[in-house]
Amino acid sequence: xxxxxxxxxxFKTNNSGVILDSIIIPTGNFDTLFTVYQLDSxxxxxxxxxxxxxxxxxxxxxxxxxxxxxxxxxxxxIYSYDENYNSPLNILNIGGNYKIxxxxxxxFYFLQSTYKxxxxxxxxxxxxxxxxxxxxxxxxxxxxxxxxxxxxxxxxSTISDFIYTDSNLNEYKNDIIQISNFPSSSNVGLMNxxxxxxxxxxxxxxxxxxxxxxxxxxxxxxxxxLLKKSCFSAPQNSNPTINSNIGFKCYDKxxxxxxxxxxxxxxxxxxxxxxxxxxxxxxxxxxxxxxxxLGGDYSYQIFSFKATSDGGCLIMGKYNIDK
Length: 323
Prior knowledge:
Elements (H helix, E strand, L loop, with lengths): L7 E6 L5 E7 L6 E10 L4 E11 L5 E11 L4 E24 L2 E10 L1 E10 L4 E7 L9 E4 L6 E4 L3 E5 L5 E6 L12 E4 L4 E8 L9 E8 L4 E8 L17 E5 L2 E7 L11 E7 L5 E8 L4 E8 L5 E7 L4
Antiparallel strand pairs: 1-2, 3-4, 4-5, 5-6, 6-7, 7-8, 8-9, 10-11, 11-12, 12-13, 14-15, 15-16, 16-17, 18-19, 19-20, 20-21, 22-23
């Protein structure tokens, strides 16, 4: 990130991890490949690589291009295209690549007098369709997107709102989250549950209105009625954080009876301080089955969970800043 003349490389392996082939993705006339944030399988044995190219300066302003590369399964680049953004943006977070009903939604948020999210819609082969900035009525950004329980529309979350849109991101409802009832943090995550409700995860302010002290998951119907809430205290009650968006999700479920959520114990902790990360497993009624606290010997940052078929989960993160 932010390294001039950096490159991106894709590796193809067999199922034992032995490298069979690799390819370097060209950056063109941009001096920094800011991030390569998703590689998807598309139709007809094609791969889609989604990235952002950036010319970067020390003030944090970027002239950027969204870039999509199409490759065959032998890693030959078939073709590519760029979507240009000519106005400099102070990008705060990049990522969020959601495949929903044959459309791909890209999300990044930026600061340009106010916080906003730029969302792009691509078709199932990655061709650019349109882009929109959301939310339209507040200084905020989108942290997660799921398919609405009706199977057609979308639900988007921010730190303070649920936004309901059609599949082309046209808003038709925007409801404020009541902090006393729903999780809140810099990122609020969403998960599908059934045809009448969904799950949201985040951090809750249970004892102090200024400092979150618990990780929470809630089941909510599409009228934003709270059906069930389950929380557990963060270690040391120290302003915890749950990652969502930017390609990272500290929550996942293999089934409604096997849901994981959690995060790091302190949002503001310096990377040189020892931290813990926390994981809870809940059943389909959001009853906590178990809680694990791991770490404490180094500075841990937890980025992503992936629930697995054997009832466990995989965890991805880093420790001591650079490991």
